[in-house]
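Standup notes, structure subgroup. Blocker cleared on the BIS(adenosine)-5'-pentaphosphate input:
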Amino acid sequence: MTNIILLGPPGAGKGTQARKLVDEKGMIQLSTGDMLREAKASGSEMGKRVAAVMERGELVTDEIVIGLIEEKLTSGAASGGFIFDGFPRTLAQADALRELLDRVGLSLDAVVEMRVDDEALVSRITGRYTCGDCGEGYHETAKPTAKEGVCDVCGSTNLKRRADDNEETLRQRLMEYYKNTSPLIGYYYAKDQLRSIDGLAEIDTVAASIAEIVG
Ligand code: AP5
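Run returned:
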C-alpha cells in the first residue's frame, strides 16, 4: 500500500494522473477540489459558503478542507493506498495531514511534485472539459473525446467546463499556489519525501514516471 501526494499548480495534471492510478492500481483518490464541488452541487450550507471563494480562485479555509480529509481517512482503509490530490495546500494542512495519518496508523510514502511552466497551464485550463456523469477529464487538443460531444468512458453527452477555468481566475489560483502551496516543496524536500517529475511530458509519459515512484 502506497500513500502519495500529487503536488502541482492548477492544470499540472494531478486529477488526470490520479484517475489513472485509481483505474490501474486500485488506489483511492482524495481530491479536496472534487469534494468541495460536490458540496457546492448538493446545496449544503458549507457548499454555499465555499462557492464564491472557489469562483474567485482563492483558498477555502484550512478548517473546512482538513475536516473533509479527516472524514474520508477515518471512514475506512484503502488497500491500494491513498492519492492526495490538491491537498495539502498550506503548511497548516501539511501538519494536519501528518497528524491525521499518525492517528490512523498510516504513513506518507512520497510527494510527487509535477513540474510545469505557467505558459502551458493557461492552455491546459482553458481547454479543459469534464464528463459531468463519470468525471472523466478531457482537453480540446491533448485529450479530446473520440466522438465530438460524447464521453469515451460512459457515453454521456453531459460534458462540462468548470466555473473557475478562465484566464482571470487562473491568475488568482496561481498566485495562491505560489504564495501558500509552493512552500510545501521545501517542507517535503527537508523530510526527504519529495520526488520531482516533468509534468510537461505527454500524459502516458508522466504516468510512467509516477508508476516508477509508486511501484
Ligand atoms: P482543485 O479542483 O484542486 O483545482 P486545482 O488545484 O486548481 O487543480 P486542477 O483541478 O485545476 O488541475 P489538475 O492539476 O488536476 O489538472 P488536470 O489533471 O485536470 O481546486 C479548485 C478550488 O477548490 C481551489 O481553487 C480552491 O478554491 C479550492 N480548494 C481545493 N482544495 C483546497 C485545499 N486543500 N485548500 C483550500 N482550498 C482548496 O489537467 C488539466 C487539463 O490539462 C486537462 O484538460 C487535462 O486533460 C490536460 N492535461 C493533463 N495532463 C496533461 C499532459 N501531460 N499533457 C497535456 N495535457 C494534459
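Discussed briefly. The longest strand covers residues 110-115.
Next: hand off to the docking folks.
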